[in-house]
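From the thread on structure requests for the teaching lab: each student submitted one protein with a one-line request. Submission from student K.M.:

"Model TetR family transcriptional regulator from Taibaiella chishuiensis, tokens only."
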Amino acid sequence: MNKAERTKQFIIEQTASIFNKKGYAGTSLQDITAATSLTKGSIYGNFDGKDDVALAVFDYNLGRVKDILRREMLKSNSIREKLLVYPRVYGNIHLYPFPDGGCPILNTAVEADDTHPALKKRAQDAIVYWKRTIVRLIEKGISNGEVKVTVDPEQHALAIMAMLEGMTMISNLMGQSHYRKLIIGSIEKMITDLF
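Reply posted by the TA:
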């Protein structure tokens, strides 16, 4: 990386947790300069503005989640084990280098729904990618005889995603870690029942 690329990466890494915790609207330019110890001019010399930083940070945080899931799935042999990676990781995010503030998809989707079309599009694309990944796993399981042929891949993919994100929202909002365990148990049962 050249100096400009290193500076951009530094800004992204230093502000990733701020955007993920405080959201786009809650993160100020002052937060960005304080986190990076850079001037406004340095920030604007590397990004077109706060919007540009926010989009780069979302991509960075999402990439971190994808990397965790990808690495865990590489350790798994069967479709069942690969699908169970989702509740294992989301149920134990403190054991992984998950972005501070939790799931960037959930955080961004809730905030950007009505306020930031470009971030909303990024979150939508992330949901489409996630759903497609789970659908493909289930379809592969059906084709190789692991998953019951009566299973609807899209329905189950959406249910898994909704339960994971709902679990994150409920357990964080209520501050009840046992809610996380209860919901993770339901997700694991739903996945196990596919086989």
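TA comment: The chain has a mean pLDDT of 94. The two ends are 46 Å apart (CA to CA).
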